[in-house]
């Protein structure tokens, strides 16, 4: 099981293989809809709708516009517009800047996280409903 | 950039992922999932065995092992079709390499630098640029590529 497992602290270690992690590198720009059953890391620009069944990590230099539907989110980047729907834990890191509404079950904010918008607790049924249009891409 | 100098510099669409829309990158990209739309890269594109890519690809170098059922590939330098790949589409390249057991349906065109630049510029003027977060990205006349709200 542990064969070929990379010890890289960029992503949490429960992602068994680097190849399973989606990545938008710094310098890359994605426009459109993305749906994934795996984890994801964004250091570049994303504009559109994103559905992620794993953990999403948004790096400091990343810029996001549009709606995010995800199980867990670690957000250190910039969001210029759109909402974040988190099935479980949403974590806004110090230095991030978020304009938009947040929906979550659990919420954590670090000192120096900038956030403008409203917050709402979301139950499981609601999450499935709002994320359905993007999740359909996976089928 | 050394090859594999930094895994973080490679964008990746992994297996179990579907993307529909437009990608512009100054770096390399690897696709193992499903891609539908337009991809423009200043670097190398690697399409893995299980991948499905449809749409337009404009790239410096391409290693293709996956499947394309509809699309066009423009490669400024080397297009390499690997054994086991299936490509239905038009291929434009400067240099072409095909392995035994690569399946190709479509047309092949040799491309020179001037032609490539013309195509790269007309369809993606922002391709070369770093993420300057420019709203005036380009006039996407292409109707099926705009991503948002197209279903």
Helix segment tally of chain A: 1
Secondary-structure element order of chain B, N to C: EEEEEEEEEEEEEEEH
Rg of chain B computed from alpha carbons, rounded to a whole number of angstroms: 15 Å
What helical percentage do the residues of chain B reach?
Answer: under 10%
For the largest beta sheet of chain B, what order do the strands appear in spatially?
A: 1-3-5-7-10-13
Low-confidence stretches of chain B: 1-5, 125-151
What is the gyration radius of chain A calculated from CA atoms?
14 Å
Q: How many beta-strand segments of chain A?
A: 14
**In terms of structural class, how would the helical and strand content of chain A be classed?**
mainly beta
| Coarse morphology of chain B | globular
Net shape of chain A: globular
Q: Give the biggest beta sheet of chain B.
A: 6 strands, parallel
Counting copies of identical and different chains, the oligomeric state is heterodimer
Task: Chart the SSEs and their pairings.
The complex is a heterodimer of chains A (139) and B (151).
Chain A: E1 22-24, E2 28-36, E3 40-42, E4 45-58, E5 63-65, E6 68-75, E7 78-81, E8 84-86, E9 89-92, E10 97-99, E11 102-104, E12 106-109, E13 114-116, E14 119-121, H1 124-135
Parallel strand pairs in A: 1-3, 2-4, 3-4, 4-5, 4-6, 5-7, 6-8, 6-9, 7-10, 8-11, 9-12, 10-13, 11-14
Chain B: E1 11-13, E2 17-25, E3 29-31, E4 34-41, E5 44-47, E6 52-59, E7 61-64, E8 67-68, E9 71-75, E10 78-81, E11 86-88, E12 90-93, E13 95-98, E14 103-105, E15 108-110, H1 113-123
Parallel strand pairs in B: 1-3, 2-4, 3-5, 4-6, 5-7, 6-9, 7-10, 8-11, 9-12, 10-13, 11-14, 12-15
């Amino acid at each position: 099981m542990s064969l070929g497992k990379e010890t890289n602290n960029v992503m949490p270690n429960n992602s068994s293989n680097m190849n399973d992690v989606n990545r938008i590198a710094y310098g890359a720009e994605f426009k459109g809809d993305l749906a994934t059953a795996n984890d994801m890391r964004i250091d570049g620009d994303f504009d559109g709708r994103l559905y992620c069944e794993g953990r999403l990590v948004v790096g400091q230099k990343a810029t996001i516009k549009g709606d995010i539907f995800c199980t867990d989110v670690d957000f250190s980047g910039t969001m210029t517009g759109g909402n974040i729907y988190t099935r479980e834990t949403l974590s806004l890191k110090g230095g991030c800047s978020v304009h938009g509404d947040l929906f979550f079950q659990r919420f954590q904010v670090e000192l120096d996280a900038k956030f403008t918008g409203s917050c709402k607790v979301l139950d499981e049924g609601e999450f499935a409903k709002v994320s359905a249009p993007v999740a359909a891409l996976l089928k | 950039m050394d090859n594999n100098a930094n895994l973080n510099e490679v964008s990746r669409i992994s297996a179990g992922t579907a993307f529909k829309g437009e990608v512009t990158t100054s770096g390399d990209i690897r696709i193992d999932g499903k891609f539908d739309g337009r991809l423009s890269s200043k670097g190398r594109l690697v399409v893995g065995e299980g991948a499905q890519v449809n749409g337009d690809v404009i790239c410096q170098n391409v290693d293709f092992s996956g499947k394309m059922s509809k699309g066009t590939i423009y490669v400024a330098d080397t297009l390499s079709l690997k054994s086991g790949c299936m490509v239905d589409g038009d291929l434009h390249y400067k240099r072409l390499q095909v392995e035994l057991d690569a399946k190709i349906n479509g047309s092949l065109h040799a491309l020179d630098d001037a032609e490539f630049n013309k195509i790269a510029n007309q369809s993606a003027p922002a391709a070369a640029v770093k993420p300057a977060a420019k709203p005036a990205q380009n006039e996407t006349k292409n109707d099926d590529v705009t991503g948002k709200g197209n279903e």
